[in-house]
Amino acid sequence: MTFKLGVFPSETGTINNPRSGGNCAVDPNGNIAETDETNNACSDSVNVTLASTVYTDPGGVCSNNTPCFTSITDAINNVSPSGTIEVGPGDYSENVSMGITATMNIDGDITIISLILTNGTMNGKSSKITLTDAWEYDGGTFNANTGTVSFNGSSAVVPQNISGGLVTTFNNLVINNNGSKGVAQSSDEIVNGLLTLTTDLDTSSFTLTMSGTATSAGTGDVTGKRKNAWGSFPVDQRSVSVIRSTLFRSTAGQHPPMSRLH
Question: What is the spatial distance between Cα 259 and Cα 244, in angstroms, rounded to a whole number?
């Protein structure tokens, strides 16, 4: 007599055959797509390990790649420490916390609630990462590549924060928050590409550095500290310091007109 039992392991380790000395078979008929279709026979146990590469897609398709997760968090929890997470495009309604030594590739435009990066490597590639809440960079490596990070919050209670113990170097940065509290820096940040100010950015006591390759666009303002490629621009802390977005169009080595500060 043959009994068939579907097993869905929730963690890595060894699944033991309940009958000592018995035999087991894994998908003997080849009805399920496996990374290794030749491992259908086993003896007393099956070893379960984390996948070296995992994929995400809110629609659960992942271009037919497996294993496929609809959640970035689930992908993080199921990849090996030295593995790779291939994040597909789409709207992920979740807070993402990257705290493992794996590599995360953003393979298309995504929307998430918030991001905390404390370990591993995140590659923005040419994609757009849109956040409706906070960005926190405390560890690991963020490679902006040619991508864009956009802050699109709408809170009327607290500002949308860009924070962390490490300086984030953005390629393109978009400030497009339509909440009454706007976007606020709680750490120093750098922009190498295009800074788009649809709404205002408050740097507070921290510094926004525009590199020699950076440009700007939009009608919003930067309030607080700003540093250009040619050095720090003095800000009079005794008055309200508003730096118009047009200042950022200055080329390296040229100081913007003093009349633009007010």
Answer: 11
